[in-house]
């Protein structure tokens, strides 16, 4: 119980624009090409500048559920960790484990590079249509669980783009706090 509560204290939920976050790394909800797109991906590339795309070009893409890191260029964040989430179909083609893998891989890469603060958008819940409530549950439980094994990470912020998303994350966090034995 004590260890579990320690993990929860590292989580924050804020409503806002992830491109403005002053953290070691922000996560980009990318696609497998890593060559930019709409949504949060477009906003991050816009704010980081052309050099981000130049570095992404040499990465050779990234598999869904995995992640790759670049510099942050003109962002306040020093790094961007790019992760392609799953395209939601009907929940039967591995969407949930793949979304969990996105969160886990980003945190593992952050720990490998001794990063302490990381901010996530709600991966998969825009263009890729992952149901928002379920995505928030997976995000919060996967991050909480992963942090037990990654002691260097001090703060994980979920940056929600609107109130509905923030409420879904708050509800998911409340559910974990009410039922710690479920983890
Ligand atoms: N800050 C924080 N969250 C944001 C921002 C922002 N500036 N902008 C949008 N969101 P999406 P996906 C939220 O569509 O579903 C791209 O074209 C948004 O409200 O950005 O993983 C990629 O290139 C939603 O809750 O990502 C891929 O092709 C969440 O970010 C594809 O979209 C994710 O929405 C990936 O789709």
Describe the structure.
- This protein is of the alpha/beta class.
- 41% of the residues lie in helices and 17% in strands.
- The protein has six helices and six strands.
- It has helices at 2-8, 39-48, 50-57, 95-112, 132-147, 163-178, and strands spanning 11-15, 25-30, 68-71, 79-84, 117-120, 155-160.
- The protein has a six-stranded mixed β-sheet with strand order 1-6-5-2-4-3, sandwiched between helices.
- Helix 4 (95-112) packs parallel to helix 5 (132-147).
- The protein is globular, with a radius of gyration of 15 Å.
- Ligand AR6 binds at residues 17-19, 29-31, 37-41, 43, 85, 121-128, 159, 161, 165.
- Residues 17-19, 29-31, 37-41, 43, 85, 121-128, 159, 161, 165 line the site of ligand AR6.
| Rg (CA only) | 15 Å
Which segments are poorly predicted (pLDDT under 50) over 5 or more consecutive residues? none
- Major sheet summary line: 6 strands, mixed
How far apart lie the N and C ends?
Answer: 11 Å
SSE-based structural type: alpha/beta
Cofactors, ions and other ligands in the entry? ligand AR6
Q: How many individual helices? A: 6
What sequence of helices (H) and strands (E) makes up the elements? Answer: HEEHHEEHEHEH
Provide the β-strand percentage band.
Answer: 15-25%
Overall mean confidence score, pLDDT: 95
The helicity comes to 40-55%
- In spatial order, strands of the major sheet run 1-6-5-2-4-3
Q: What general outline do the C-alpha atoms trace?
A: globular
């Amino acid at each position: 119980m004590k260890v579990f509560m320690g993990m929860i204290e590292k989580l924050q939920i804020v409503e806002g624009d992830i491109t403005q976050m002053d953290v070691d790394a922000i996560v980009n909800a990318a696609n497998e090409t890593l060559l930019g797109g709409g949504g949060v991906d477009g906003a991050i590339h816009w704010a980081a500048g052309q050099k981000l795309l130049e570095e992404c070009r040499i990465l050779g893409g990234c598999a869904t559920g995995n992640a790759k890191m670049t510099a942050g260029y003109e962002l306040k964040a020093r790094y961007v960790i790019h992760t392609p989430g799953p395209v939601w179909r009907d929940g039967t083609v591995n969407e949930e484990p793949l979304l969990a893998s996105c969160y886990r891989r980003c945190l593992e890469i952050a720990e490998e590079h001794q990063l302490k603060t990381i901010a996530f958008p709600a991966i998969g819940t825009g263009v890729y249509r992952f149901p928002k409530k379920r995505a928030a549950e997976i995000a919060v439980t996967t991050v909480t669980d992963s942090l037990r094994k990654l002691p260097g990470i001090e703060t994980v912020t979920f940056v929600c783009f609107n109130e509905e998303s923030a409420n879904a994350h708050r509800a998911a966090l409340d559910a974990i706090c009410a039922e710690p034995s479920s983890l």
